[in-house]
TrEMBL record:
Transmembrane segments: none annotated. The keyword Repeat does not apply. NCBIfam families: Cof-subfamily, HAD-SF-IIB. This is HAD family hydrolase. The keyword rRNA processing does not apply. One of its GO terms (molecular function) is hydrolase activity. Keywords: Hydrolase.
Length: 285
């Protein structure tokens, strides 16, 4: 079989990119990923999700490399059930959530620690877990403060999150806007982009053959990292404005489009250019 995608790595965000608005994987995207991998390509995910949450989809799609979780805080090898890389929120930054709870009581606050989810402050958006079948602890016991935290997530109305983002930016370290209603506190110097750099280094991937795709502000760094970084047309305005390549919306099989684009623009064009060069420079004896 012709391994036309050999050496290429496609890294995709999940929600709002790979998955449609109902959180489902389309058959066209699934078949395109299967085709890409069968033809030699590497495919993996970069998401804000947990091990369990992202892992549910790996029954539907194959990944050939470890998955980036928690917006870059953890890299996990599902095949070998092994953490490849992990960082934690600095101890002196944990108190941010108490400040937020006291000053913005309408916002929900979630703490992610040791693959458990703790609800420090409830709102209508923190109730989403009850519909998804996840084990969630609606409390933040004292002993959890002494554990290592992977991230904290602030949820609320878009205008509230806009205001809080502006207040926290450049004051409390690494704050990531992962959606209209989501603001995440993650370890300093952590992002999806930096995690991809680690993955590329570990697996000796050629940066010139890296393709990334996302939809939201937390994807901007990884999109800019790649020579061929895409934002779906349904993505956040800030992300679209900072992106050179635009793919169809997450409702219109963005991953299938990108894989076709790679084949038509990076593979076939390269072969055609090479053949044209050889024809122009061929000498006959």
């Amino acid at each position: 079989m012709d391994k036309i995608f050999y050496g290429y790595l496609l890294v995709s965000d999940m929600d709002g990119t790979l998955l449609n608005d109902s959180g489902k994987l389309s058959d066209k995207n699934r078949k395109a990923i299967e085709y890409f991998i069968n033809k030699g390509g590497n495919f993996t995910l970069a998401t804000g999700r947990t091990i369990a949450s992202a892992g549910r989809f790996l029954e539907e799609i194959e990944v050939t490399l470890p998955v980036i979780l928690y917006n870059g805080t953890k890299i996990y090898d599902y095949k070998n059930e092994k953490v490849i890389y992990e960082e934690f929120i600095e101890e002196d930054r944990k108190d941010i959530i108490t400040l937020i709870k006291n000053n913005y009581p309408t916002l929900g606050i979630e703490v992610y620690s040791e693959e458990s989810i703790y609800i420090y402050s409830s709102c209508k958006y923190t109730d989403r877990f009850s519909k998804l079948g996840y084990d969630v602890i609606y409390d933040l016991p004292k002993e959890v403060w002494d554990k290592k935290w992977t991230k904290a997530l602030i949820v609320g109305e878009e205008n509230e999150i806009d205001f809080l983002e502006e207040k926290l930016d450049n004051i409390y370290g690494n704050i990531i806007r992962s959606g209209a209603k989501y603001l995440e506190i993650v370890p300093n110097n952590i992002s999806k982009g930096k995690a991809i750099e680690k993955l590329v280094d570990i697996y000796n991937i050629n940066f010139k053959k890296l393709i990334t795709v996302g939809d939201n502000m937390n994807d901007i760094e990884m999109i800019k990292l790649a020579d061929y970084g895409f934002c779906v047309e349904s993505g956040a305005e800030r992300t679209i404005k900072s992106t050179k390549f635009i793919a169809p919306s997450n409702e219109n099989n963005a991953i299938e489009y990108i894989i076709n684009w790679i084949e038509n623009n990076l593979i076939r064009n390269k072969k055609e250019n090479l053949n044209s060069f050889l024809e122009r420079n061929m000498t006959y004896v």
